[in-house]
UniProtKB/TrEMBL annotation:
NCBIfam families: fabH, PRK09352.1. Its main location: cytoplasm. Its EC number is 2.3.1.180. Homodimer. Catalyzes the condensation reaction of fatty acid synthesis by the addition to an acyl acceptor of two carbons from malonyl-ACP. Catalyzes the first condensation reaction which initiates fatty acid synthesis and may therefore play a role in governing the total rate of fatty acid production. Possesses both acetoacetyl-ACP synthase and acetyl transacylase activities. Its substrate specificity determines the biosynthesis of branched-chain and/or straight-chain of fatty acids. The keyword Protein biosynthesis does not apply. This is Beta-ketoacyl-[acyl-carrier-protein] synthase III. Residues 251-255 are annotated as: ACP-binding. SUPFAM superfamilies: Thiolase-like. GO terms for cellular component: cytoplasm. It comes from the Bacteria.
Amino acid sequence: MSLKAVVEGVGGYLPDRVVTNDELAARVDTSDEWITERTGIRQRHVAAEGQRTSDLATEAGRRAMDHAGVGPDDIDLVIIATATPDLTFPATAAITQAKLGITAGAAFDIQAVCTGFVYALSIAEKFLVSGQHKRALVIGAETFSRILDWEDRGTCVLFGDGAGAFVVSAMDEDEANGRGILSSYLRCDGRLTELLYVDGGVSATGTIGHLRMQGNKVFKEAVNKISEAMEGAAAAAGIDPTTVDWFVPHQANQRIINGVAKKLDLRDDQVISTIAMHGNTSAASIPLAFNEAVKDGKFKRGDLIMLEGMGGGLTWGAALLRY
Ligand code: UT7
């Protein structure tokens, strides 16, 4: 009997503090009009002083476990996708595991920036269908506010903090009844590092550094790479990408989301967009958007859902699942 990796529960957490475009316009040479027109972003959440990535991850994880109806003893794998860990080590997943009272199995972080959640979900699926682990907590969690150059209007207006989580369980095919992660498609081209990176780090500078991005060059890569990933994930599952029920994209820019949706013939009402309220929360953006759609009652069990991400590396990828 083969196993499937089924999403049983989802959760999200956003810090209380909301920063509006007008507030940013008071600090750097920008305007609500420019940010809204060029990106679709109206506001973003920012973590409180002392609030760490693991705090955001813990809350999102707890909510996903509640939604799935499982407790800490039911989880034996914690994977956190983050580019903004609490500490250099141990992994934010280890810290979060302890905060959630989980003691069984493995916990580790993965780093693929804005594609991180798609990478993490794909890794979890492999661990679960192999039978090595039974139930995973997969979290995307970020405090990008800590790596932004608040003087750089080209980047500081784009990002926000938050966390989103999935509980993913190994199920026999019969029990899964068609549900589960059907395929994933992951890519990286490290030659494009200079388009989006942080100019500091442990072995390079001994500092945290700031996010640097050649936004228009990343933009030019985005639609093609994301479309390629979605077509790749659909082909791997033997599915026509135009037949998906829902599309949950990484929330970087509404114009990118619209461009991809158009290329794949998806209607606006199939696309989950939270960018106006969340900004770009990097690895957290997909599970946060997914969670909003679940809370809004949009997704029904059995719906076919495409996720995609693209970010620093450059990395890009997509995953297809039946919810
Ligand atoms: O999540 C990881 C992946 N990241 C992405 O997918 C981001 C992809 N890139 C983008 O979303 C867009 O490129 C941005 C939103 C970052 C920028 O939009 P753009 O339409 O590509 O603008 P641009 O960078 O070509 O800049 C156009 C103008 C420039 O001024 P000049 O040189 O034409 O005078 C910029 O200096 O807009 C200026 N500008 C701003 N003006 C007001 C850049 N940032 C701002 C700002 N407010 N915040």
